[in-house]
């Protein structure tokens, strides 16, 4: 299951995992867009409406979809580009955290316990180098950057909680990727999707609690 899969990186991840032989559920806040994306990808692709900021929506999606083996937490927003830490609207910061951090956390709470009970699962949280202390947080989008720092922290928490149950939880730094969020980036969504898909299909005994891109592992 991929959140925010109606366009950009999420859609590309869905297509990549489908090409690797997985059964896919695409989700998006807009029900019609989720359905349209599923139809475009193929008749075997399932879809569901899922607003990561709405607990009732997440609960309804969990009931409709049932347990999943792989969760790609991709839904995210960048609302404060061009601002700075001293003047950024804290309302924008709150909205950013609501999607990027709490949305990922809410979806994990809904779907990861089933993985723990079945003692197998893969969770990928789409993060960003802008939220990495080793890279240096990016002050030009402070709410977004700190939200991704928090996503990295959530990755560590989930990995620690599930490491004895066959569940691998990793964060992927796709790098600047050409999507609606960053239309001028050089890297295509299809290229970045391969890194996300690699983390989503790690073998048993693979790494957990890492910040990665393909085989490259970054310091937090």
Biggest pleated-sheet summary: 5 strands, mixed
**Spatial separation of the terminal alpha carbons:** 26 Å
Topology-level CATH name: Rossmann fold
Strand content: 15-25%
- The CATH architecture designation is 3-Layer(aba) Sandwich
Q: Uncertain runs with pLDDT below 50, 5 residues or more?
A: none
What structural category characterises the helix and strand content?
alpha/beta
Strand tally, please? 9
Q: Under the CATH scheme, which class?
A: Alpha Beta
Task: Count the DSSP helices.
Answer: 7
Measured on Cα atoms, how large is the radius of gyration?
16 Å
SSE string, helices as H and strands as E: HEHEHEHHEHEEEHEE
Say which CATH homologous superfamily is assigned.
NAD(P)-binding Rossmann-like Domain
General shape: globular
**Strand arrangement in the largest pleated sheet:** 3-4-5-8-9
InterPro entries: NAD(P)-bd_dom_sf, SDR_fam
Pfam families: adh_short
Protein name: SDR family NAD(P)-dependent oxidoreductase
Keywords: Oxidoreductase
How would you describe this structure to a colleague?
The chain is an alpha/beta fold and 220 residues long. It has one domain: NAD(P)-binding Rossmann-like Domain (Rossmann fold), CATH 3.40.50. 43% of the residues lie in helices and 15% in strands. The chain has 7 helices and 9 strands. It has helices spanning 8-19, 31-41, 55-65, 90-100, 102-118, 142-162, 189-200, and strands spanning 25-28, 46-49, 70-73, 121-126, 167-172, 177-178, 187-188, 211-213, 216-218. Strands 3-4-5-8-9 form a 5-stranded mixed beta sheet, with helices on both faces. Helix 1 (8-19) packs across helix 7 (189-200), helix 3 runs parallel beside helix 5 (102-118) and helix 4 (90-100) packs parallel to helix 6. This is SDR family NAD(P)-dependent oxidoreductase.
